[in-house]
Amino acid sequence: MPFSAQPPASGERYALSASLDNARHLSSLLRAVHFQDHATCLATASGLRVTVEDAKCIQANAFIQAEIFQEFSVQEESVMFRISLSVLLDCLTIFGTSSLPGTSTALRLCYRGYGYPLMLFLEEGGVVTVCKINTQEPEELLDFDFCSTKVVNKIILQSEGLREAFAELDMTSEVLQITMSPDKPYFRLSTFGNAGSAHLDYPRDSDLMEAFHCNQTQTNRYKISLLKPSTKALALSCKVSIRTDAQGFLSLQYMIRNEDGQICFVEYYCCPDENITEAEL
């Protein structure tokens, strides 16, 4: 690892410093939440969380655990800043998005603290590039308060099941209706597009169903325009956890395994679109 052994310059103290053998591990996760230009980064001893929000209705979080990095050091309890996600991704892929076989882009990132830029040192094939990205004051983030005690229904699916569903359902529909129930239809996805209504049912004993914990019947609708960004994470993932709380807020947690077999998570929170009356069901 070219950068992990390099100490900071004399007298410099970084609030956050980290190194990765392969920058693609980070860039692929960040692309999965790149549906708005800016992101808020929070670093703690457990790792790095990158949060993107839109219209106070949807929030995406990419979690990169400290163990993924070859080196990860946070000098304060937490370090937080806002940054252009577009610029960060451009810098991480400055050597291109696909490396030659047997080569990878090594990364070292350093942040001195409030008001300072995020510094990236990238090396591939003996060539080193240094990028400085301006940081901004972090904005207050939505708190969906999605603790496990408030979860009403939860299922875990193999991701291929949800990928097939998104391919088959009518995406001219404005909403995706999700029904979760301890009884039939157990788990149903419905759309209402130009070609009429379409439903996909998953029995609780389906080969694609890894866990099924439903306590009550819930039917909620979510704007497809808000859910579409999550398909980037879905494409990378191997499993997805789908949870709802009593108000119908939706959590989609994608488990993503990188090229080295390490596990990371991307989570989307989404507000329900509207209340559904019994007459509509």
From TrEMBL:
Chief location category: nucleus
Locations listed in the record: Nucleus
GO biological process: DNA damage checkpoint signaling; DNA repair
UniProt cross-references to SUPFAM superfamilies, sorted A to Z: DNA clamp
Stretches of the chain forming a coiled coil according to its record: none
Pfam families: Rad1 (PF02144)
Record InterPro entries: Cell_cycle_checkpoint_Rad1 (IPR003011), DNA_clamp_sf (IPR046938), Rad1_Rec1_Rad17 (IPR003021)
Keywords: DNA damage, DNA repair, Nucleus
Superkingdom classification of source: Eukaryota
GO cellular component, one term: checkpoint clamp complex
Function, in words: Component of the 9-1-1 cell-cycle checkpoint response complex that plays a major role in DNA repair. The 9-1-1 complex is recruited to DNA lesion upon damage by the RAD17-replication factor C (RFC) clamp loader complex. Acts then as a sliding clamp platform on DNA for several proteins involved in long-patch base excision repair (LP-BER).
Family to which this protein belongs: Belongs to the rad1 family.
Assembly, per entry: Component of the toroidal 9-1-1 (RAD9-RAD1-HUS1) complex, composed of RAD9A, RAD1 and HUS1. The 9-1-1 complex associates with LIG1, POLB, FEN1, RAD17, HDAC1, RPA1 and RPA2. The 9-1-1 complex associates with the RAD17-RFC complex. RAD1 interacts with POLB, FEN1, HUS1, HUS1B, RAD9A and RAD9B. Interacts with DNAJC7. Interacts with RHNO1; interaction is direct.
Protein name: Cell cycle checkpoint protein RAD1
Source organism (scientific name): Melospiza melodia
Lineage of producing organism: Eukaryota, Metazoa, Chordata, Craniata, Vertebrata
